Amino acid sequence: MDPQITPVELTCLDMVHGEELFCRRVFGAKEPPLSYKSEAYYEKIHKISTGLPLAIIVLAGVLRSKVIPIEWDDVFKQLESNGQPKPVKSIWSLAFDDLPHYLKSCFLYFASISENVIVHPDRLVRLWIAEGFLVPKKAETLEDVGFDYLKDLVSRGLVQVMEKDGRGSIKLVAIHNLLHAFVECEALDSCFLEIHHHANVLDPNAVRRLAVHNYVGSHVQIPDSFPKLRSLLCDFAEDQRSSSTFSGFQPQTLWGNFAEFLRVIDLNGLQMQRLPNEIGSIIHLRYLGIRNSNLEGLPSSISNLDNLQTLDVRRTNVGNIANEFWEIEALRHVLAEKMLLPRCSVPLNNLMTLSGMVPSESWDEKVCPLDFMICLRSLSLSGISELHSKAVSEALKKLEFLVYLNLSGIVLPSNMFSEPSMRRLQVLILHGKLEGLGELLLSDRYMLPNLNTLHLNKSELSQLFIDKLARLPCLAEMELLGNSYNETTLLFPERGFQSLKNLKLRNLYSLQELVIGKGAMPMVSILNLHGCDNLRILNGLNALEHLQEVVLYNMEEIADTIKQADMKLFCKIKCLTTPTMATAREVTVGSWVRMLDRRGHKQFVAVTSESSCCDMEGAGSVPEKATDDIQIHYSSGAWIRSLPE
Q1: Which segment of 207-211, 507-511, 585-589 scores lowest on mean pLDDT?
Q2: Which pLDDT belongs to residue 257?
Q3: Nearest to residue 163, comparing CAs of 595, 637, 621, 623?
Q4: Do 530 and 506 form a contact (C-beta atoms < 8 A)?
Q5: Is the pLDDT at 259 greater than 80, yes or no?
Q6: What is the mean pLDDT of residues 178-194?
Q7: What is the distance between the alpha carbons of residues 339 and 544, in angstroms, rounded to a whole number?
Q8: Residue 575 belongs to what H/E stretch?
């Protein structure tokens, strides 16, 4: 701990501020409606919660569903004994009992996650689906149902949103440490889950779900026989991954003794170079995740897993998989680092996520596997060459449900900007030169009406293309990186980019002048300039009324120019010589994210986009990197957040 930094003491709220917080959570306003104006209500709320913000929020989550004031009295009676409030933890029990049955299992699942860990909601929902917690709804995918469940838990104050994406959708969530202690006890008492740290598991015969958390030692000793085990979840600290192994048995024996009822295997950081061929005999397996591992390959028997829904092998060395694997009709999500995607012709109508794929050389416009994956919502391809560009271009015409698209290669198609099939696209990340731009620039076709996030790298665009992008009605975040724009002057046209909030320009070495036209980018709040070494002129920044922050990396000269011209604008500038956050460990999607603990000052690490509703895997330059764990600490009752640079 740094002795020069004074820790921030978080105190409980007084009655006035507690009432304001409660009313905002229940009524969406500072003041309650007339029928709930009774001062006695808020006196009881203050006594029961003791002013603890978390207790107020969770109690508000219970009472907001009670539409008749007399129902509030019933709740207060349950939280009192002989006229005196029960301990605060009784609020957690009441909130849990108030959950509908289908949410209780989802909430208890947070016990499988270590304390003080931030969670990517996509992965959490995929696990819920594999466990069978979700009740299907007509005209909704199970993923949509899962996010509805998560939003319900958030609205009840049991789960906290740590970060949202540019569309306002949930990007990262966490459970408070006080609630984590409660849910862990509840999961253990109800035999929902067994948590293994260092002590032995007392009764392996009764265990249905086993969570292994190991952040101190490098070995785990657990019995080799769990006759009723359905889920195995292992999470190893980053500094233990080089030596993390099961020491009670060999991995080859793991699958045989655990296999009969296993539905979920999720091993994060456990070192194993190969999976035994017996993995193919776990016929009920729905979720197989082996991440942050030295895994070299997958046995051909994996194609026997007819019920497999999710395969997650990010941050491994797996580059190939048996062609028969792509005949598993139950597949919903396949996530890898760089896995070869061969020609295949079996319709995969349930497949929604395809991440970290590399096209095989046999692709052509007549035979392309994407033609048989028409329900994809999220697609990430790298290694695209001229051989594949036409095939990808034709496939995009059929992918009408696509919401997230991440392409990387030497040459990329550009028709995603004008195809009607891309009308649902919300996130677009392109790393490579775009072909066919001339035809696109001459077209007046309406482009990407729902696009929210656009990242371009090495695209070699012209001012004419920027003028086309200016018409995108929903674009909120744009990044132009690595020579994606090669002209000396970049003009944001008048009244263009009406929805843009976050703009990043990085390594545009030809750029000398940045001009913001009248009425352009009226909503921009953050401007990030990095490595634009020849930029000397900035015009129009002072007209941006909502601009809160200008971040400059290694651009001291332009900062001095702004200081001389506009002191008010200069006060919004952050001059940085190097990125301040943990840039050595790029964080993308797929793992739990742990927190960085710095005494008295807590910074949240920005994580590249992972969509909340559509499995938008890995915003950032392609190929993707899997998530390293990052630890963040937060104090009871409140969050301290500083924006990442």
Answers
A1: 585-589
A2: 57
A3: 595
A4: yes
A5: no
A6: 94
A7: 44
A8: strand 573-576
User: Quick one: tokens of 103?
Assistant: 């949410």
Q: Which carries the bigger pLDDT value, residue 199 or residue 28?
A: 28
Write the CB contacts of 356 (distance below 8 Å, at least 6 apart in sequence): 314, 335, 336, 337, 338, 339, 380, 382, 617, 618, 623, 624
Could you list the beta-strand ranges (E) of 135-254: 160-164, 170-174, 194-196, 209-214, 219-220, 231-236, 245-246
pTM confidence score: 0.84
Contact at 8 Å (CB) between 529 and 550?
Answer: yes
pLDDT digits (tens, 9 = 90+) for 596-611: 333 333 333 333 333 3
Element (H, E) at 25: helix 15-26
- Distance separating alpha carbons of residues 178 and 110, to the nearest angstrom: 12
Number of H helices, E strands in the chain: 15, 28
Q: Are 554 and 579 in contact (CB under 8 A)?
A: no
DSSP helix, strand, coil percent of the chain (3-state; round to 5):
30, 20, 50
Ordered by where they begin, the domains of the chain are 15-97 (no CATH), 101-176 (1.10.10)
Tokens of 568: 């008010």
For residue 338, which phi and psi values (nearest 5 degrees)?
-150, 85
Q: DSSP 3-state assignment of 39?
A: helix
